[in-house]
Known about the structure:
By secondary structure, the chain is an alpha/beta fold.
Amino acid sequence: MIIMKIIDVINQISEGAQATQIDRDHTVDKVIIGDEFQEVTGIVTTFMATIDVIHQTIKKNANLIITHEPTWFNGRDDHHWLENDPVYKQKRQLIENHNLVIWRFHDYMHAAHEDLIYKGFNEVMNWESYQLKGDSQSKNPLERANICYAIPETTIDDLLTVIKEKLNMEVVRYIGSPQASAKRVGLLLGGSSLGLGDEKNPMKLVNSQNLDTVICGDITEWTLSAYMRDAYMMGMNKTMIILGHEKSEEVGMSNIVPWIQSLISDVPVHFVEADEPFDYFYQ
Ligand SMILES: [Zn+2]
């Protein structure tokens, strides 16, 4: 067996993503912690390197975690502000004790020839053929992206049932009515519903694309949520479905496993669920 270094794994996957639009000087994708020149023993993909994900990685005898989102609680994974923080120090110690490497794979995924996070969602929902092309001339990044879908008309009740089952969710939050219908859907995964630079962008998208339904990851309650709620309260056929950041992007991370395994055949590649950040209190 050829000895393969973690750095070689990272390079192969980055190249394999064929992310032509990537800004190499400003990407958040980098080795977050660990020695990337060590031999790889196993690979874990996950939405986020939580403590539980780290423990499961150790159990699997893997030493490379490929995470979509940050390890150090901020978008650019800056850790200087945390040097004396007890949570940071203990997490870092755990990672170092087991010689793990954490690599962030975010921008390359979204900039891939086909956005790999959306690809995972499309595959799970069987929505590949319903995806519409964005308007490359638009100033609104949400309108430029391929995030709108013309799906066969369905009720919100049925759509929520399918989403709950396919994404393995305990509860699904929504605004609107289960009796409403869905056929023009905007998929605002991850942080997209925050607007990608301008919080007005999601509402402009709903209007210009005549969307009846938006499916969102992270949300702000006084922007798109308030807009969809007002629209619904005035009798319009508008629905918002809220998955949370983790559930909306996680299938993207599980569905890249076969692709990574095809690139890196010598060591096992696993997916580890990061799980929603919340518990639900029922009584
Ligand atoms: Zn993402």
